[in-house]
Structure formats: C-alpha cells, structure tokens
Amino acid sequence: MKATTKLAALAAAALALSSCGTTDAARLASSWTELGNTWADLGYWDKAGLAWSEALRLDPTQAVAGYNLARALAEAGKYDEAVQAADAVLAKDPENASVLAVKAYALHKAGRNAEAAAVYSRVVELNAEDTASSFNLAVLLEEGGQLDEALARYLAILDAKPDDAAASLRAGVVLDALGRPEEAVPYLERYTVATPASLEAKRVLADVCERAGLYMKSMEALLAVLAGAKDDADAWFQLGRLRLTVADDAEGGLDALAKAAAAGFDDEDAAWALLDTTGLPERQRVEAALAPVFDKPDDQTDPDDDTPAEEGEL
Question: Which residues form the domain of 13?
C-alpha cells in the first residue's frame, strides 16, 4: 500500500471513529480495529497496539483486534504481554490457529521453547498447510536435539513445497548431523542453487561433500566460494589440502596453500595436521608454503615438539 493510500485509510478510520455514537460499542470497536490495522500498515506498532487494546475494551469479541494486538506486542518485543493477549483470545476461541501461531512465536522469543514447540504442534494439527509454523516447529525440535523428528518435519515441508530453500538447508544440515552426509548433499546443492549469492551456503556444501567423500564436488564448491571471496584464507587452505591429499595435484595444492598463507590463514593445528599426513607429497615445499602460519612472534614451535629449550630461549 502506497503512503498516500495508507494516510487516506488512516483519515477514513479516524472519521469513522468521530462519527460513532458513544453507545454503539460494537461499531466503535470495529473502527478502533480498523485504525489499528492502518497504524500497523504504516509501521507504527505501538499506536496500533493501543488502538486494538481500545477495540477489545469496548468489545472483547473482536477476535481480529485480539490477534493483531498479540502480534503487535510480539513485534514490539513484549513477549510475555503478547502471550497474555493471545491467551485472552484463545479463552474464547481455543482453536484459532493464527492466534496460536503468534503465541508460539512469542513463547519462543521469550526463551520458552518447550512450550512454543507444544503450541506449534497444535497449530500444525489444526492447519497442516501452515508450512511456516511447521518449519518453526522443526527448528525448535532441531535445537532441542530431536533430529529425527526435525528431519521428518523438514522433509514433509519439502514434499509440499519442493522449492522451499530454508527447509532444504535445514534438512541437509540435520542429515549431516545424523552422520548421513551423502544424503545431505542433494539438499544443500538445492539450497545453493536457490541462493546463488550465499558464499556461506557454498562453504557448508564444501564441508559436507568432503565428509561424504565427494572430493571433486567439495573442490568445486570451494572454487565457487573463492570466485566470490578471493581472499578467503580458510577456503584456500581447504582447497590446497584436498588437492594435495586426494586429487594428486601437488602443484595446484602448493599454489592454494601459498594463497591461504598470503590471505592470513592462521590455524596452526590444521597446518600441522596436514604436515603430519602420511604420504604427503612435497612435504618440505608444503612446510615452506605454510611458513607464514608458523612464523609468529608468540609461538614459532611445533606444538608436538617436546625438545627441551636451549638455555636463553625462555
């Protein structure tokens, strides 16, 4: 709605209020509800909340005002008040799925996740097509460690909406957490296609592909990351490590490691782990490429080197 249209609606709502007789409570409450709706469209949630509160004072049966008030309070970060407003509506209409969804959201934001999950479950029972609530329930299950249940929810969403990028990402992450990285890869690939600008999505895909033993796909994902972030030191190191250890590409690996060091790679544990790899080709050259990682003023020694320090070194 354009600003001029919103202002016109606001003026109309105010005119309706001024024309209401004081004894016509239902009509007056409806006008307050419309005024609140208009304030909300303009982004003034506090004013909207006041208008909806007045509507409910005049007519407690104003379900729309009750739902909107709960939503406004949640938007304003007043989560406990939002729950109370939702409960007031639910006392008269306990199966109002829209109000239950607002209550569940407010409970989650208030840190009451177990209660939120229970309410979201009821929302989904009442309205199986509410994929937003189903997704929120799956996230809460995932955060609570109920990975199998969360995965089932994500997959159900994808059955209904195959192009749901967020559900694809979470399904992939959960499958990987369940130790099923090969199954995770297609979902993460679907997510990267849906979000081509997301470098983080490509990083996740690279990591999961490596865990799945899909090394070429992992390196392709890393190259995609580097195409958008040429100074990503971690991506250069991971690419170099894979080229050296699984792709039989020593020169390409050394080049990537040199670029990692130049970009500021500083994970000494990862660097030492690479140097300790059995059968690592060109080990001396690898160590030379990673020299900037180790040559630091505070710690220039191999953490596994227990050779006694010479007098005067300490």
Answer: 3-216
